[in-house]
Amino acid sequence: MASLSFIGEDMETVTTSDFYEASYYILNECSIETIQCTKVNGKVSCHFTFEGENLGPLQVAYFRGNAEVNLLQFRRAYGQINSYAYEAKKKQRKEERLQELESQAAAGGNV
Fold it and tell me: Is residue 111 part of a domain?
């Protein structure tokens, strides 16, 4: 589910874990501010935070089923979102392994 917040008069932010919704925002010239990965039921979920103008109306159009996009451009944007998520998950796994090794070393275990 996406959430909408305001950061200024014209700029808004939306956070979503829906790759289709994220692709729609990319196509409407919104920028990714952050990608955050969290574990949910043993799996890693990515949440994208977007910034841009008119995110509220874009979000409403998306959830009402009124979003219109060029299908080829949408396919490319979806691939881009998947790539970003893959890299974010890979980075998180690397950081988790490093933390595990550090905690083992601090506990005097074999590394």
Answer: no
Q: pLDDT, tens digit, for every residue of 10-61?
A: 679 999 999 999 999 999 999 999 999 998 888 889 999 999 988 999 999 9
Beta bridge partners of 43: 40
CA pair distance 48, 67, nearest whole angstrom = 19
- Per DSSP (E only), the strands in 61-102 are none
Chain segment 64-75, per-residue pLDDT in tens: 999 999 999 999
Give domain status of residue 33, yes or no.
Answer: yes
The gap between the terminal CA atoms of the chain, to the nearest Å, is 40
Say how many domains are in the chain: 1
